[in-house]
Automatic annotation (TrEMBL):
<keyword id="KW-0560">Oxidoreductase</keyword>
<dbReference type="InterPro" id="IPR020904">
    <property type="entry name" value="Sc_DH/Rdtase_CS"/>
</dbReference>
<dbReference type="GO" id="GO:0008209">
    <property type="term" value="P:androgen metabolic process"/>
</dbReference>
<protein>
    <recommendedName>
        <fullName>3-hydroxyacyl-CoA dehydrogenase type-2</fullName>
        <ecNumber>1.1.1.53</ecNumber>
        <ecNumber>1.1.1.62</ecNumber>
    </recommendedName>
</protein>
<dbReference type="Pfam" id="PF00106">
    <property type="entry name" value="adh_short"/>
</dbReference>
<dbReference type="GO" id="GO:0006631">
    <property type="term" value="P:fatty acid metabolic process"/>
</dbReference>
<dbReference type="GO" id="GO:0047044">
    <property type="term" value="F:androstan-3-alpha,17-beta-diol dehydrogenase (NAD+) activity"/>
</dbReference>
<dbReference type="GO" id="GO:0005739">
    <property type="term" value="C:mitochondrion"/>
</dbReference>
<dbReference type="InterPro" id="IPR036291">
    <property type="entry name" value="NAD(P)-bd_dom_sf"/>
</dbReference>
<dbReference type="GO" id="GO:0008210">
    <property type="term" value="P:estrogen metabolic process"/>
</dbReference>
<dbReference type="InterPro" id="IPR002347">
    <property type="entry name" value="SDR_fam"/>
</dbReference>
<dbReference type="GO" id="GO:0004303">
    <property type="term" value="F:estradiol 17-beta-dehydrogenase [NAD(P)+] activity"/>
</dbReference>
<comment type="similarity">
    <text>Belongs to the short-chain dehydrogenases/reductases (SDR) family.</text>
</comment>
<dbReference type="GO" id="GO:0003857">
    <property type="term" value="F:(3S)-3-hydroxyacyl-CoA dehydrogenase (NAD+) activity"/>
</dbReference>
Length: 261
């Protein structure tokens, strides 16, 4: 009997931002499921340390996702080591909180933070996925004429960004908006495109917050009444990879959270 589910076991996945946070959650989940995992992250990250725990099914490449040459070379090294690329999950990202013009002090903020946010979150994701397409397209079709899948990470800020999140929301909104066009572009080539929009997760970015702030954030989430865990994000990524009928869609994982202003 034909199975409609394609197990992660044996698949080769490239995860940007895999040294910590949501990316690490994906790395560890896919490795537990029997996959081969390549971590692309900054040289200052814990990517190399994480890769060592994965044995011969793990690989680390020091990469700035904005750098075309670094991304190109890293993908080529993955293919040399593992023979192919089946999956790309993009989790690398940054966040700044500021308003473009400060009313009280009448100060116009530099455009640098906005540009950097767009460059890392949106252009970096695009840079990663275009090389993923190139290598995934080299694969033979599977039993359902599929070659692989690319999963990008947005945020619920793409839909209800808070005050000070104009740059972050714009970058994540761009990731949301390109999901369906890309799925249509490569439908005949057997490459699926999905997007995950997480709410508030217990990652290094939020772990340094004071206990009172964490309690406030937890109280915003209807059910379960807590931050998400990277393992839960990783589990969703695994399901998307294995369920080949998921394509061209954005999935929120947020405990029904709708962010207030």
């Amino acid at each position: 009997m034909t199975s409609f589910i394609r197990p992660v076991k044996g698949l080769v996945s490239v995860i940007s931002g895999g040294g910590s946070g949501l990316g690490r959650g994906v790395v560890e989940q896919l490795h537990r499921a029997g996959g081969k995992v390549a971590i692309f992250d900054l040289p200052t990250s814990k990517g190399a340390e994480v890769a060592k725990t994965l044995g011969d099914r793990g690989f680390f490449a020091p990469v700035d996702v904005r750098n075309e040459e670094q991304v190109k070379t890293a993908y080529e090294n993955v293919v040399k080591l593992f023979g192919r690329v089946d999956v790309n999950v993009n989790c690398a990202g940054i966040a700044f909180a500021e308003r473009p013009f400060g009313i009280a002090k009448k100060d116009l903020k530099p455009i640098d933070n906005f540009k950097t946010t767009i460059e890392v979150n949106l252009l970096g994701t695009y840079n990663m996925l275009r090389y993923a397409i190139k290598h995934i397209h080299d694969n033979e079709f599977d039993d359902m004429k599929q070659r692989g899948v690319i999963i990008n990470t947005a945020s619920i800020a793409a839909f209800e960004g808070q005050a000070g999140q104009a740059a972050y929301a714009a970058s994540k909104g761009g990731i949301v908006s390109m999901t369906l066009p890309l799925a249509r572009d490569y439908a005949n080539d057997g490459i699926r495109f999905m997007c995950i929009a997480p709410g508030i997760f217990d990652t290094p970015l939020l772990s340094t917050l004071p206990a009172k702030v964490k309690a406030f954030l937890n109280a915003l989430v209807p059910n379960p009444n807590r931050m998400g865990n990277p393992e839960e994000f990783g589990a969703l990524a695994q399901h998307i990879i294995e369920n080949r009928y998921l394509n061209g869609e954005v999935i929120r994982i947020d405990g029904a959270l709708r962010m207030p202003p």
